[in-house]
Amino acid sequence: MITFFENSIVNTVSMQSAEPSSKTGQPCPEFVELTSDDVRKLIEDEENKNTMKKTLSDVQKFERFLLNKGEKKAIYQIEPDLLDEYVANFILSVRKADGAEYEPTSIRNIVSSLDRKLKRHKYPFRLIAEQTNAFQLTRDALRAKTKSLKRLGKGNKPLKASPITDEEINMLYEKKILGPSSAASLPNTVWINNCIQFGLRGTKENHDLRWGDVELKTSSSGLEYLALNERQTKTRTGSNIKDIRDVTPKMFAMPEDIERCPVHAYKQYAVQRPTDFCTSDDPFYIAPRTSSQSHVYDHEKWFVKMKLGEKKLGGLLKKMASDGGLDSNKRITNHSTRKHLVQKLRDSGIAPTDMMQISGHKNIQSIMNYSEMSEEKHQQCSRILSKVRQQPTSTITGPESSVSQLDNVIDKENRQENLYLPHPRLPQMLENVQPPSSTTVNSISVVNDNISLNTQMNSLFAGAVLNIQHFNINMN
Questions:
Q1: What's the rounded Cα separation, in Å, for the pair 189 and 451?
Q2: Labelling 71: which of 140, 223, 233, 261 has CA 20 to 30 A away?
Q3: Who has greater pLDDT, 419 or 318?
């Protein structure tokens, strides 16, 4: 129950809030005046630009298909049953501009674009969700098309980026494409450090970065490090206020290797920036000086007050790979840095949950999708599979020959290799096994002279793993 005193406070606050607009006729500074168009524009501005472009392109492609069928209605004005037939026919008949088949993922993405368009116009059904029987023909056509394309050899992601390797990064340092020593190599170095150690995506997230987002700090042990104040990312858009990184991304100094030290590169980058272009809201990446700008800016600085373009950042690693003479048959893009991050941590035995804190991934499955077998391990597996181990086929004819053959087998296969023991009859079969005497003897008594050595070894040593060098066995 509200008391008289509480009611008086509420009335007073309400009068004070209304006072500025009533006395001056000006809008209250506590609120911003917005129209309905302003609201819609703000919502559109916060949508992913690449998704919007993709949706528009795919919808226009489908509209051309509808016109070819004599249908002039907008997609969201067509009846569900008829639209189901149209979309199913479209899925099975659509091709690239050159007549080639799309990849299965591309077909799926086109259907998703159509689904987004319908959702935006409050269409009563979804194309892909199986909550109702609506658009069942569309879903069946999509599955059939995917299987058909896979049979043709599609669906293996031929354009996926490969992780850049340590050897390739070393080559870029050796050729001075990376390093803190010049205006050309310094931005490359800072960028690749931010991608690998902060887990930033190569283009948009780096382009949105501001100078104040990266702070130079010192740990309790006196070691300098850089900490990132993360902005909006692809997976953390801000729509969920609780969805933030649990661990602040950091990169620490390496005093023992100044050339590769990320903190040293950052400090050098800070020194070479214009002094009046280092506020918190200034862009992080700025353009290097050209000869035509030498008469305008301070000659001592390597960089000028001009933000580096998103397109320039988008092709940064590809240009580095070309300038450094890296393998042209290998697909290296900005995405290769994040793959390098995950691959290197995985090869070093870092737990996937810890890797997520560095890379910014939200689930372990995404980590596993990024990780793949390295070329070195693939070569190792190939060499192992190429070797054919020769198995002994001779037959034991007596105790002496059996001992001799057993010694030959052990020498050939190496006494330190694992021998496999049976179960569940292992305890009974080893009741008569005696520990080795002080004088090392390799002997074995065999009752059945017609049993092959291979058969004995397989029957006796198949199951558990033991390392056996010297033993006495009596088999009754």
A1: 68
A2: 140
A3: 318
DSSP annotation string for 226-292? EEE-----SS--SSSTT---SS--EEE--TT-GGG-HHHHHHHHHHTS-TTS-STTSBS-EEEP-GG
- Burial-class residue 67 by CB neighbours within 10 Å (0-12, 13-18, 19+): exposed
Residue 226 CB contacts under 8 Å (≥ 6 apart), including other chains: 214, 215, 216, 217, 250, 251, 262, 263, 266
pLDDT score for 256: 93
| Residue positions counted in the chain | 476
- As to burial, measured by CB atoms within 10 angstroms (0-12 exposed, 13-18 middle, 19+ buried), residue 182 is middle
pLDDT of residue 349: 83
Integer CA distances (angstroms), 457 to 399, 415, 450, in order? 15, 14, 14
120-161 residue pLDDT tens: 899 999 888 777 788 999 999 999 999 999 888 887 877 788
Q: Which residues contact 394 (CB under 8 A, 6 or more apart)?
A: 405, 452, 453
CA distance linking residue 193 with residue 265, whole number of Å: 9
Task: Write down the residue that tokens 């050209």 correspond to.
Answer: 290
Is the dihedral angle over the CA atoms 327, 329, 334, 338 positive or is it negative? negative
Confidence of residue 455 (pLDDT cuts 50, 70, 90): very low
Asked whether the bond before 424 is cis by omega within 30 degrees of 0, the reply is yes
Strands 443-445 and 472-474, how do they pair?
A: parallel
Nearest partner of 207 among 229, 193, 191, 186, judged by Cα: 191
Beta bridge partners of 225: 217, 252
Q: What does the pLDDT look like over 359-413, one tens digit per residue?
A: 777 677 777 776 677 777 778 888 888 876 666 555 545 544 444 554 554 455 4
Q: What is the pLDDT of residue 262?
A: 95
Instruction: Give the end-to-end CA distance of the chain in Å, rounded to a whole number.
Output: 95
C-beta neighbour count of 226 within 10 angstroms: 22
pLDDT at 59 over 60: yes
Distance CA 170, CA 175 (A): 9
User: Is the pLDDT score of 417 beyond 70?
Assistant: no
Tokens of 214: 């990266």
Q: Which residue has the tokens 């009563």?
A: 124
**Radius of gyration, alpha carbons of the chain:** 35
Lowest mean pLDDT: which of 111-120, 127-136, 247-256?
127-136
